[in-house]
């Protein structure tokens, strides 16, 4: 009963108090609708977790900082929480969110969280035990192999072999998650290893290092969580699932784990709405885990006779449903590659200016964009009149801007690419004369707008430029 009251309290609080982070400062919405810094005396870790979760990040740490402005505090009664002005509180909270959705000590590669063994293990069976309670890396996409080759391998002075979950089944190679290995594999071993930047057949009893995969610190679209968070929403530590005191008290029938991480559980045939853990031997409490960004959600595997939900794309071979946002993102998600067939060349409307990164006038930030074509697509589809963008392949970060001025808002960066529209609406002025004839002017040259390839979409854009809705 008490855990239910805690849950109701948290839900009531979440719906009535809104946080945001501005220049790393934690702000709270006042009753007037404006945001002000939160007084440090009112801070609780769950406020930082809620603010970081709102931007699909994870809470890392915080510090108190002096302020030269008013702050707001939070007060709660038995039924509601509210904000009020704190005229004498001049210290706020600086919140540090982690953009990585992987636990400390692990590396984010694509949509996976990896850890690497520091010592070699003797064969496949020992490798599985080494990774427990996690697993050997479930699969490797070409883009993930490239990322490991560029970011992880250079840190080793010797040539190492890393065991994966891949196994030879007859003449076919299968990953631990059931997917077929798409690359050609050379060698005679039955295990699959990563060696010198490529996948090779490997003797399952030979000594090797290990790639372990742990869960991401976010909840996937299929309401799954296998990360390492072990604190409840109100900051209490989680007990081990197999703690004798927990086993003695509990009357629910679900899996017993040898860890204290938050997990979804089944109660009366229904999955819990959020990950939970035991904060006391007799008390289950919810954990505040953010949802994964859309680009990190896994594809839905179809059962026979199933159809894809609205907003999803069905692979041609009927094996998976993927989000429509993954279609034509220039990274293969379907085993048959059908999600990347007949895709538009979004870059044809942009010209590469050079190795620069946007440092000012940024209107949108997109992360986990696997290819520059995806960044060009975001720019074209932006509702904020995107004129140019910079893209960093290694961090998969896309920055959009609404200015076509070349150098005033740029910083030179060798790992970033800056593109600008070949035909910018800001280089052209439009006007309507004689009530019906539209003219365009560029470089002091004026002419009528031709109706060839003209569309309602283009007309709508021009109306916005002229100041109409």
TrEMBL record:
Signal peptide bounds: 1-16
Sequence ranges assigned to domain Apple in this UniProt record: 350-422
Keyword Amino-acid biosynthesis: no
Alphabetized UniProt keyword annotations: Disulfide bond, Kringle, Signal
Domain Kringle positions: 216-294
Annotated protein name in UniProt: Uncharacterized protein
Organism name: Caenorhabditis briggsae
Upper lineage: Eukaryota, Metazoa, Ecdysozoa, Nematoda, Chromadorea
């Amino acid at each position: 009963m008490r855990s239910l009251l805690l849950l109701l309290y948290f839900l009531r609080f979440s719906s009535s108090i809104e946080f945001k982070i501005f220049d790393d400062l934690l702000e709270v919405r006042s009753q007037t609708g404006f945001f002000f810094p939160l007084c440090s005396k009112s801070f609780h870790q769950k406020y930082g977790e809620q603010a970081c979760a709102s931007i699909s990040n994870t809470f890392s740490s915080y510090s108190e900082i002096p302020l030269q402005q008013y702050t707001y505090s939070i007060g709660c009664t038995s039924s509601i929480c509210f904000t009020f002005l704190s005229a004498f509180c001049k210290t706020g909270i600086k919140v540090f969110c982690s953009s990585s959705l992987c636990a400390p000590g692990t590396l984010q590669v694509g949509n996976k969280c990896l850890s690497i063994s520091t010592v070699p293990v003797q064969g496949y069976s020992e490798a599985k035990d080494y990774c427990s309670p996690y697993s050997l890396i479930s699969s490797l996409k070409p883009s993930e192999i490239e990322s490991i080759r560029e970011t992880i391998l250079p840190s080793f002075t010797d040539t190492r072999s890393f065991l994966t979950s891949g196994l030879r089944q007859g003449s076919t190679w299968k990953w631990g998650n059931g997917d077929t290995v798409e690359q050609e594999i050379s060698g005679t071993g039955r295990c699959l290893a990563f060696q010198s930047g490529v996948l090779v057949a490997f003797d399952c009893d030979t000594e090797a290092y290990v790639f372990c995969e742990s869960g991401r610190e976010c909840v996937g679209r299929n309401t799954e969580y296998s990360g390492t968070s072990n604190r409840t929403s109100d900051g209490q530590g989680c007990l081990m699932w197999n703690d004798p005191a927990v086993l003695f008290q509990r009357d629910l029938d679900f899996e017993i784990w040898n860890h204290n991480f938050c997990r979804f559980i089944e109660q009366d045939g229904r999955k819990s709405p959020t990950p939970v853990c035991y904060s006391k031997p007799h008390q289950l409490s919810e954990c505040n885990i953010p949802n994964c960004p859309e680009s990190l959600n896994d594809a839905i595997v179809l059962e026979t006779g199933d159809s894809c939900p609205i907003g999803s794309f069905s692979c041609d071979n009927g094996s998976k449903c993927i989000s429509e946002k993954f279609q034509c993102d220039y990274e293969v998600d379907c085993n048959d590659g059908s999600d990347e067939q007949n895709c538009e060349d979004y870059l044809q409307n942009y010209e590469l200016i050079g190795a620069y990164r946007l440092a000012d006038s940024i209107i949108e930030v997109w992360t986990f964009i696997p290819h520059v074509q995806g960044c060009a697509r975001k720019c074209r589809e932006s509702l904020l009149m995107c004129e140019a963008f910079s893209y960093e392949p290694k961090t998969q970060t896309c920055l959009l801007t609404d200015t076509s001025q070349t150098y005033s808002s740029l910083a030179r960066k060798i790992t970033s690419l800056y593109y600008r529209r070949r035909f910018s609406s800001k280089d052209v002025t439009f006007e309507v004369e004689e009530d019906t004839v539209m003219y365009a002017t560029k470089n002091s040259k004026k002419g009528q707008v031709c109706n060839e390839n003209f569309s309602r979409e283009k007309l709508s854009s021009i109306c916005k430029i002229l100041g109409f809705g």
